[in-house]
Amino acid sequence: MVAGLVALVLYLYFYIGEGQILLVLSRINSTQYVVFYSLALLSVLASVFFWSLAWNSILRRLSINISNKRAYLYYWSSYFADLVVPCVTVCGELTRLYLVQKETQENYGALASASVTNRIVAYTIVTIGLYGGAALVFLKPSTPVFITNIFITFLVGITIYMGVLLYLALSQSSAKNLTRLYFNLLKTFRPRHYHLSNIEKNRRSLEDFYSGFKTFRERPKLLIKPLILHAISYLLGLAVYILVFYALGIPSSNPEFYMVVFFIATAVQDAAASFSVGSLEIFLANIFILYGINPAVSGVTAAVLRSAGFWFPLIAGFVSVQIVGAKNIFTSKPEELQRRLISFRRKAKKPANEQEIIKKREIQTEHAEHKDAEAEK
């Protein structure tokens, strides 16, 4: 992130110029900026809320019940993991799986099928939007080659990603193949953690994993509600871009422009996470220039957009992580807290106990040697 910020500052300083940026900032109406930028941040919060509602509706279809409040906090916590760690949304999904399983004690197989189903629904919208945006950019005769190449790269990436998700959902052998690979690696590199009981437990998880998909394959109408909720979420995300443009006093652009910018930014951020800092701002600035916006205005707009789309969610996610951690402590049952305390004390005493055992063994050895010596005499 720091390296990306440095690259962005260098880009703004050398390519656009300090004087031009200060001129753009001096022309911004502060009242208008505060009002519309605040609305943009509220849209971010609302967008995440509808995203969590879509995910929770899928969980409930599989009889996994958590409150909407919890789902919202869990999604923010997982979003924080996605933004910090560049692992293409996998870290976020694993975070959500862990938090929900810890609360509900449900089988990981059912939880995983809900996560993959939710991703398929969400990325159906992203894929359509990205392909539509790419088509609009490719049709522009003045599109630079590097922008075309980046679009092609992400189109290939999102197609592969969707293909993997569909493979997991539609192929009964997919999860078995992945699990077999996992256990082979575990047996090779961490044999102490390889147990036959885990294989049986995993077999039951796989059955739940596949039956979760079977529920939606047999009744695809169940996906209509999450699809609508995801559509609302993405519309609110799109509204963030429109509100930021109004906050900076930039004349409204056509819908094509906002669609291209939004879906490109969504795909890049999901794929690159923290690596997108700096690079995505520069890419967005060049997209704005392509659509005829002044370079200085483009640079400032890209930076402000990313403050609402990356840095604000990063802070909100960090706060949610602290809230979830605190709730897990305060909502624990007394006997659970006592069990943790006993476990902690045992671990704290372990080094001392090990030293006592060693000392006893040394005394026993000395005593045995002394007896042997007496016997020889």
Q: Report the count of strand segments.
A: 0
Q: What does the average pLDDT come to?
A: 78
Question: Uncertain spans, ≥5 residues at pLDDT below 50?
Answer: none
Percentage of residues in strands: under 5%
Total of helices: 14
List keywords for this structure.
377 residues, mainly alpha, 0% strand, globular
Task: Please explain how this structure is put together.
- With 377 residues, this protein is an all-alpha fold.
- The chain folds into 2 domains: 2-331, no CATH class; 334-377.
- The protein is 85% helix and 0% strand.
- The chain is built from 14 helices and no strands.
- It has helices at residues 2-16, 18-26, 30-61, 68-84, 90-104, 108-138, 145-170, 172-189, 196-218, 224-247, 255-272, 279-290, 295-330, 334-376.
- Helix 3 (30-61) packs across helix 6 and helix 5 (90-104) runs antiparallel to helix 6 (108-138).
- The model has no long low-confidence stretch (mean pLDDT 78).
Question: Care to give the gist of this entry?
Answer:
This protein has 14 helices and no strands. It has 377 residues and is mostly helical.
Q: Secondary structure elements and their pairing?
A:
Elements: H1 2-16, H2 18-26, H3 30-61, H4 68-84, H5 90-104, H6 108-138, H7 145-170, H8 172-189, H9 196-218, H10 224-247, H11 255-272, H12 279-290, H13 295-330, H14 334-376
